[in-house]
Amino acid sequence: MAETTVDLDTTIDTLLERYLTLLDEYTRLRARLNGLQSGIYQNLARANFSAQRGVRYGQDHYDDRMQAARRVQITQSSPSAGHHVIFDMIKVTADESEENDDKNNTKKEDQQEEQDEKKSAAAATTKDDNNHDGSGKPSPPPKKRNNHDPLRWFGLLSPQPLRLAQAQAVQAVEEIIPRLASLSAAMADVELQVRRARKKRSKAEKVDHQKKLQQQEGHLHGNGGQEEVLPAH
Amino acid sequence: MTSQQDYKDRQFLAVIGDEDSVTGLLLAGIGHVTAPPDAQKNFLVVDNKTDNAAIESAFERFTTERKDIGIVLINQHIADRIRHRVDTYTAAFPTILEIPSKDHPYDPEKDSVLRRVRRLFGE
After folding, report:
1. What class does CATH assign to B4-120?
2. Given Cys at both, which of A79, B29, B50, B51 links B46, Cβ 3.0 to 4.6 Å?
């Protein structure tokens, strides 16, 4: 059964309402990302300002063997939520062998750094820690956490601003960026549905228009017949 | 329509940005260098000396050649340098997100998602 233009108008309105909700969330997350990134840049600038002469926290210190500790996970959304994909960020731990080596060598440092990082993360944002715990996955034991900690590239005693920058970066990477990517995919899905519905509506409108024309023509013919008949009386 | 095959191996976040942007994101633990001899990085640090061809090549590598990248982050002012390439990118994976940098605040006018919004509403 073909949908009427009124049905299609309602469908389009519902889709646009959903689209605007997604857009609102996208805009709010964009603002949050801007805020976090400003914080990261300020903290990096502070760390560089207070660093020893000639030291810059940048690419010269990157570890060429770095392994990603936070990785993207893409899943399909539930059919009720549309046909788009959902991006998530998952935390991975080091391989068992590496982990053991690292644990033996630097167990003490790990614990110390863990405590320090927790303090700085709490100072920067209380949400960060909640996110680790509330991600739905069991949080890894503390000893594993720093096996791939990029802070170590910059020495054992990393300055507080650098830790703050890290806490903000973690929040951006875990909470904002995957959600922005998911929203972009969800919005693209709604855009597609709106375009399809608009196409259908325009077809339905054409059909309606033709029907109306036919009816008018039929009506005119009917009247014309009467007019012809009447003078004969 | 996307199939699971299109995205199941896409596990890395790639970055094309200035030094501070890349350092910030690498601090979050997203940096990855593949095993030798390839040793491919998932980031590119762009400075004044980096030419557009190098940026374009990294963009091409992250979006087309590598099948393990799920999201590409690129500083908006760097995306401007290869705007034709970024704007004509239409693939579902990886997703491209433009982010602000220290010296260049985020401009919503250039945001690809907000441009799509304007198109949908007929502007």
Report:
1. alpha beta
2. B50
